Amino acid sequence: MMLRLLSAALLTIFSFVHVAHAQSVRIKDLVEFEGVRSNDLVGYGLVVGLNGTGDGLRNSPFTEDIMSNILERLGVNVTGEQFRPRNVAAVLVTARLPAFARSGGQIDVTVSAIGDAKSLLGGTLIMTPMNAADGQIYAVAQGTVIAGGVEAEGDAAKVVQGVPTAGVIPSGARVEREVDFDFSQLSSLRLALREPDFTTAARIEDVINRSIGRRAATMNDAGTVTINLKQTGARSPARAVVTIENLTVEPERKARVVVDQRSGTIVMGSDVRISRVAVSQGNLTLRIEEAPLAIQPNPFSEGETVVVPRTGAAIEEEPGIGLALVPGGTSLSEVIAGLNALGVSPRDMIDILKSIKAAGALHADFVVM
């Protein structure tokens, strides 16, 4: 009876793991549709109303130039005037114009100081035109900056939390020009895979053709699938995208190991494999200490104080673990179990993985961040 229950439990666990591994993903989460993309915008503007935390105009002459230009456009003549306010800061304003954004719509903007301003907290961005790569103005930004940090300073101490020299303005820009692109006139549509793979592209082609009932999709290469919109039978390209984007596909991904040397983080995909290999690891520490000794002459005698150098040097080597056998991994759990058998820290594990990759025993892409 116990054997039957154990077999049933193992079968349930295996089925759950298999289903989790074979999880399908929507096509819209795997590809980019041609023409459905955002565009980057950038502008150069001025933030005013700062509480004495703005640019020093001696160190940031461009701030004075833009301030003079703004005042002259408003009818204030400042030619030859000497003014040194500390409540203004020159900034770069960035944003992304979403696909199909229409005139009058609003988008979020990010404001970043480019001078020696200490904080943008409480400032207001003055009307700033935002240009795209073609040099045309597509939006105009203005509004109160929400800074991402805080700064407090006294005579002998200073505390900074976050980044007070950068902030955001929610819905801070209004779209003034639309991107010249008519999606409804497309006769074919290209799907660009975010992670090109021949198997995934073939599966996308198959699932689209099965759903439509005719050959409308064609795989061009590992990163592109072309759809003949007339063959889909949809009333418009937008309707065809609605039919296609929610179809599910099981993606095929490359085995990959990603390590972050700064934090000691290691991430491994489920398809990572390690061949049978033996690993030895140990630490070598070199210590050099300086303890100079001052020798002084006797009281009331002639002579001078002399500093005699004293250096102590030692080499310490930890015993290490000897040779540890990492068996050939047939699954991610076995790979982790084999590496954990070495009993080393994550940072040492990164060096071990590098060495295993150099030895040709790690069968995965090794990405170092």
Automatic annotation (TrEMBL):
<dbReference type="InterPro" id="IPR001782">
    <property type="entry name" value="Flag_FlgI"/>
</dbReference>
<dbReference type="GO" id="GO:0071973">
    <property type="term" value="P:bacterial-type flagellum-dependent cell motility"/>
</dbReference>
<keyword id="KW-0966">Cell projection</keyword>
<comment type="subunit">
    <text>The basal body constitutes a major portion of the flagellar organelle and consists of four rings (L,P,S, and M) mounted on a central rod.</text>
</comment>
<dbReference type="GO" id="GO:0030288">
    <property type="term" value="C:outer membrane-bounded periplasmic space"/>
</dbReference>
<protein>
    <recommendedName>
        <fullName>Flagellar P-ring protein</fullName>
    </recommendedName>
</protein>
<keyword id="KW-0732">Signal</keyword>
<comment type="similarity">
    <text>Belongs to the FlgI family.</text>
</comment>
<keyword id="KW-0975">Bacterial flagellum</keyword>
<keyword id="KW-0574">Periplasm</keyword>
<dbReference type="GO" id="GO:0005198">
    <property type="term" value="F:structural molecule activity"/>
</dbReference>
<keyword id="KW-0282">Flagellum</keyword>
<feature type="signal peptide">
    <location>
        <begin position="1"/>
        <end position="22"/>
    </location>
</feature>
<dbReference type="GO" id="GO:0009428">
    <property type="term" value="C:bacterial-type flagellum basal body, distal rod, P ring"/>
</dbReference>
<comment type="function">
    <text>Assembles around the rod to form the L-ring and probably protects the motor/basal body from shearing forces during rotation.</text>
</comment>
<keyword id="KW-0969">Cilium</keyword>
<dbReference type="Pfam" id="PF02119">
    <property type="entry name" value="FlgI"/>
</dbReference>
